[in-house]
């Protein structure tokens, strides 16, 4: 199964976490990450993002599981 790049960061205006996966931008209150990831610093906002590769994500009520 192919792996895809994902990244997430804190979204201050919405007070939530934004998850970016396959061109989609998803807002959530909680995430559960089950794959290795690393941090990346940017010169522009968002300054810090956490990124990695995953096979899929599961969207539940207020939780996104990254597997």
Structural summary, described in words:
With 67 residues, the protein is an all-beta fold. The protein has one domain. Helix content is 0%, strand content 63%. It is built from no helices and 8 strands. Strands 3-2-1-6-5 form a 5-stranded antiparallel beta sheet, with no helix packed on it. The chain has a 3-stranded mixed beta sheet with strand order 4-8-7, with no helix packed on it. A hairpin with a 2-residue loop joins strand 2 and strand 3. The radius of gyration is 11 Å and the shape is globular. It starts with a strand and ends with a strand. The mean pLDDT is 96.
Q: What is the number of strand segments? A: 8
Radius of gyration: 11 Å
Count every helix, treating DSSP H or I runs of 4 or more residues as helices: 0
**Strand order in the largest sheet:** 3-2-1-6-5
Element order: H for helix, E for strand: EEEEEEEE
What is the count of structural domains? Answer: 1
* Mean pLDDT, all residues: 96
Biggest β-sheet: count, sense, barrel? 5 strands, antiparallel
Quaternary arrangement of the chains shown? Answer: single chain
The secondary-structure class comes to mainly beta
The shape, in one word, is globular
How far apart are the first and last residues' alpha carbons, in Å? 12 Å
In percent terms, what proportion of residues is strand?
over 45%
Q: List unreliable stretches of 5+ residues.
A: none
Fraction of residues in helix: under 10%
Short structural summary:
The protein is an all-beta fold.
Distinctive features:
67 residues, mainly beta, five-stranded antiparallel sheet
């Amino acid at each position: 199964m192919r792996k895809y790049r994902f990244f997430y960061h804190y979204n201050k205006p919405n007070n939530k976490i934004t998850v970016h996966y396959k061109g989609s931008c998803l807002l959530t209150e909680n995430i559960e990450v089950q794959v290795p990831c690393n941090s990346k610093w940017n010169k522009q906002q968002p300054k810090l993002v956490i990124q990695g590769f995953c096979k899929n994500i599961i969207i539940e009520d207020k939780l996104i599981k990254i597997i």
